[in-house]
Design brief:
This protein is of the alpha+beta class. It has two domains: 175 residues, 3-Layer(bba) Sandwich (FAD/NAD(P)-binding domain), CATH 3.50.50.60; 172 residues, D-Amino Acid Oxidase, subunit A, domain 2 (D-Amino Acid Oxidase, Chain A, domain 2). It is 35% helix and 28% strand. The protein contains 13 helices and 20 strands. It has an eight-stranded mixed beta sheet with strand order 6-7-5-15-16-17-14-18. Strands 9-2-1-13-20-19 form a six-stranded mixed beta sheet, covered by helices on one side. Strand 11 and strand 12 form a beta hairpin. Helix 1 packs parallel to helix 6 and helix 3 crosses helix 13. It is globular, with a radius of gyration of 21 Å. The structure holds flavin-adenine dinucleotide. The site of flavin-adenine dinucleotide has 41 residues, from helix 1, helix 2, strand 14, strand 17 and strand 18.
Amino acid sequence: MGTRSVREGHIAVVGGGIVGLALGIEALERGNQVTIIERDDPPRGASVRNFGHCCVTAQGGIGLDRAIRSRRRWLDLSAQAGFWVGETGTMLIGRTDEECQVLAEFADRSSLPVDLLGPDQTLNALPGFAATDIQGAALLPMDLRTNPREALHCLQRWFAKQPKVTWMGATNCTSASEGVVHTNRGVIEADRVFLAVNHDVDRLAPESAHRFGVTRCVLQMLRVTPAEPMKCEPALLSGWSLLRYKGFDACPSLPLLRERLSAEYPEMIAADVNLMATQLPNGDLLLGDTHTRSQFPEPFSNEAWDELLLSHGARFLGQSSLMVRERWQGVYASAPEEFLVDHLDERTTAVSVTTGIGMTTAFGFAEDVLAA
Ligand SMILES: Cc1cc2nc3c(=O)[nH]c(=O)nc-3n(C[C@H](O)[C@H](O)[C@H](O)COP(=O)(O)OP(=O)(O)OC[C@H]3O[C@@H](n4cnc5c(N)ncnc54)[C@H](O)[C@@H]3O)c2cc1C
C-alpha cells in the first residue's frame, strides 16, 4: 500500500514509550509538527521497566544495523536532554567450557569489537564481584547502559518542550484511520499517524497483530540490594544470554551449550530465564528475567520463578544474599520477526519492536520507518 511521505506535515504518534519517542524525534528533525498521544502520565510501559541495556554487539541482521545507529542517537540525546548514558560495555561471563567456547566463536565472528578476558582480568574489571566459578568473559565495549526510569522521563520532558511538539499525556487512543485519531479527549487530525503501542498493537490494529503473529511476552524483574558491596559498570550477562540474542546464533558450539543447560537446569528452561543484571547509581541491581508468552497472560507473578532468579543471581554475582526491594512485570510484543511495520491505510502505520530489543534498536528503527 502506498503511503504519504513524512516531510513537513503534521505527524501524530500514538504511544510515548521509546519507540514512539524515537519516531517523534525523527519526525521533528525532518521538519514536521509532532503530536504524541500517550494514555499514561508519565509513560509506564516496557520502556521504564527494562534493564536500560543497549545490547548492540549481540544483535544480528537488520537489528545490528539499527542498534549501531541507535547507539549514536543515545549518546547525542543524553547530552541534549541531560540524562546518563554510559559507554560501559557488556561483560558476558563464561562459567563453563561450553560457554567460553561460544564466547570465543562469537569473538571470531563479530563485526564489532569483542575482548576475551581470563578469570583474573574479569574479576579485576568488576570490583566486589566474587563469583568463584568464572572461567573467562567477553567484554563488548560498544554496548551502552542507561537508567531506564530516568532516561525515558528526561527524554519525554525534553521532547515535550521542543517547538512544534505537542505532548498529550493521559490521553487514550480508541481508533485511528485515514489521518484521524479518536481519543477520549477528542479527535486529532494529522498527515500521517503511527501506532507505536508495543504489544497493544492487537488492540488498535488487530489484523496487523494477527498477520505478524504478535503475542505478549511477560517478564518478571527484581530490584535487589547485594549483601556485599560491588561495583559493576558493564551490564552483566550470563551463559543464558547466549541462548537469546541473534548475534550468537551462528556460533557452532551453541547447540551443545543449549543441550547442556537444558539437561542441567530444566527449571531455568521452564521459566525461560535470561540471567542478567545491571547496576543502578545507588548500587542496587536490576536482576532478571523470566519470560512467558500468551496473548492474554495471567496477571499473577510466579514466586518460584523469582526465587530461581534470586538463587541463581546470588551465585552468578558471588553474593551471599540479595535483598528484594521491588518486583514487577514488564511486557513486550513478541513475534517471529523482530520488527513490525504495517501500513493500515495511506496515512496510518502500525509499528512495533517485536522482541526484547526496543531500547537497543528504537532510534535506528524509527529512522528506517520514516525514511521508507
Ligand atoms: C522487563 C523488560 C526488560 C527489557 N530489557 C531490555 C533491555 O535491557 N534492552 C533492550 O533493548 N530492550 C529491553 N526490553 C525491551 C524494551 O523495553 C521494549 O522493546 C521497548 O521498551 C518497547 O518500546 P515501546 O515504546 O514499543 O513500548 P512501551 O514502552 O510499552 O510504550 C508503549 C506506550 O504506548 C502507550 N499506549 C498503549 N496503548 C495506547 C493507547 N490506546 N492510547 C495511547 N497510548 C497507548 C502505553 O501507555 C505505553 O507508554 C525489555 C523489556 C522488558 C519488558
